[in-house]
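Obj.: predict assembly geometry.
Materials: sequence records (below).
Method: joint structure prediction, all chains together.
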Amino acid sequence: MSGTNGTSGTVTATRAEVCAVACAEAFRGDGEIVAAAVAGFVPMLGSRLARSTFEPDLLTTDGGPSLSAEAVPLGAAAAEVEGWLPFRDHLWLVLNGRRHVIMGPSQIDPYGNTNISCIGDWERPKRQLLGVRGGPGNTLLNTTSYWVPKHSPRVFTGKVDFVSGVGHDNGAHEIRVVVTNLAVLDFATPDKRMRLRSVHPGVTVDEVVQNTGFELAVPGDVPETRLPTAEELRIMRDVLDPKGLREREVPS
Amino acid sequence: MSKVMTAEEVVGSLESGMTLGIGGWGSRRKPMALVRAICRSPLTDLTVVSYGGPDVGLLCAYGKVRRLVTAFVTLDSVPLEPHFRRARQDGAVELTEYDEGMFMFGLYAAAHNLPFLPTPAGLGSDVMRVNPELRTVRSPYADGRELVAVPALEMDAALVHMNRADARGNAQYLGPDPYMDDLYAKAADRTYVSCERLVDTGDLLKEGPVQSLLISRAQVAGVVEAPNGGHFTDCSPDHGRDEAFQRHYAQAAGDPEKWAEFRERFLSGDEAAYQDAVRAWREEGK
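Observations (raw structure tokens):
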């Protein structure tokens, strides 16, 4: 596999950087709300990149209960703090609604129902996972996006074993996008089934279809996911993720 | 009036079959010294109410849990709790699985002596399917919304771990998040506080601002001084999570033979023996 997925001017972006920008794009237009990117380094980087560039009013944390005065590098504590968001206030925000969360599903179905609770029968699971966490409330009441670092038919499955996050056929507020290591997916179809929005540079439509365990809506013309700008690359590499944690999550 | 007790006295006041709330969140500020004392006791058949971490894992490993009420069990930096997984996969524990916000409303309801509190969280999800006893209510106002009536999470007793407390039972947190510990204290019939350090009442405000006095003595039945008693979970600023030891725990917990060794080495004696064994283990690693 080549790490040279695309070029922007004279700079080459890695797949992880394309994914982080796709996660940042998920927050475009959100304004002054909390970006709660709990699913991993890439979405966390994406939320902070959005705040550092086109979505400056976003509120972001340092990974703990501090709302940082500026977007802080991954793994760093906030040097300056503008607010406090303990767990109870996250749960308040779920009902309040001014929050967009990116979660990581173990399974996701065509309507965006997701499972992080258990694999197999709930009564006696084959593999116990985390439990539902805040998934039911998040998805019913907040804009939700998903991050899947390894796009596979095991994750993209026709039916989830347990609905811990509700999809569009179960009352979801808005499942905006699903960003994976291969593509960006959304629900912009008449019946809100999952659709392939764009493939990352170097990925074919067929590759995405092969790695999805259900029939995906595929438009006739699937664009490429946009590349990071030179400025976005600079911010990711020099400011927000100088240690390159993003590359561990999506090996090039 | 001093409410100072030993961990053994706290556990001695509990009974098998009780419903027990445990404060903290995941692998953060868990009353581990009290949990370890329960593991050493004959208590059994407990219903445990917890945003679960290694407290739930250890109690499952010792066969203490009949039913668990939770939204998750995690070690945070290690996503999955091996003992809890095994207990679920073996069918050894019953589970009441709620959304995190539903769980909080259950605590709020119990703290306020309300039979339930309404919330939309949970609707549409399989939480409703696997908790068939849950009822919904319809708003009597113009919106007419259907909401989940989350029943009060009533508890016979609750255990929380705080940074400071006085002998009367006033308890203070100095870390960045209160979690839900005040709600447990208000919701349970009686609450036991373990703390990193007992201080004189007059010194509490030397430790932190008045808002850090999270739990009032009116809600507290007993106080235990347990230095490093949150170990290996995070109890900042007194001690962060002992990540190396937590990894050691998680590796041992995933393998019956290693777990037997772990249990023998760290958990066969009292709390002082545990703390000594951890210190010795850390010295070895240097």
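Conclusions so far: The interface with chain B takes residues 64-66, 84, 86-88, 91, 94-95, 117-118, 122-137, 139-141, 162-166, 170-172 of chain A (CB under 8 Å).
To do: check interface contacts against the pulldown list.
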